[in-house]
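Feature request, filed as a ticket because there's no other form

It would be nice if the structure record came with a short human-readable summary line next to the tokens. Right now we just get the raw output. Example of a typical job, pasted below so the devs can see what we mean:
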Amino acid sequence: FRRGAGARSTVLLTQAALKGLEPERIRAARDADAARMAFNRLLGRPVEAPLALDTASALEAGEAVSADPARALENRPDLVSLRLQKEALQGYARVYRLQYLPSLGVQGKWGILAYETDKQLTDFDNNLEWQVGIGLTWQLFDGLGNRAKARQYDSDVRTLAAGERQARAFARIEIESALRAAAAADTALAAAR
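Raw output as currently delivered:
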């Protein structure tokens, strides 16, 4: 026993060190799960969705974590909603501006004018009826009401564009932070294992 005590004590010391690393491994796994959930939330996906960021293999290969934040920004529901609202308001402004242009209408009618169907229905030369009409409407002045509405919608578009730029910048910061947190948590998990 005395001759093997040094080897046994090294084994016991290694086992104790491994047991001491167990809480760190549990914390690293918790941090990796929290980072994955936060990143999925930022992407607009379900929180429990799997994430294929294999940063442990990237760490072994000596490469950086490769994820595309630009693609993640395009899929975010809040940014998509802002973009669609902006496009709708641009359409409203265009409609109000177009109301100052003339509108042209054409109407046509063709038929048979037969008062006595048994005699006149087949006499096309004498009983045909047709009518063609062209109409033009042009609102010359409305007190600049449509112009004011169009400018109001343009102002709303500019406000939404500024809000979208700010939300996009904050989302990019959050995504980059979540990627780095995921990489750090994955690295800590790999080191603890």
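Something like this underneath would help us a lot:
Confidence is low (pLDDT under 50) at residues 58-66.
The CA atoms of residues 22 and 175 lie 29 Å apart.
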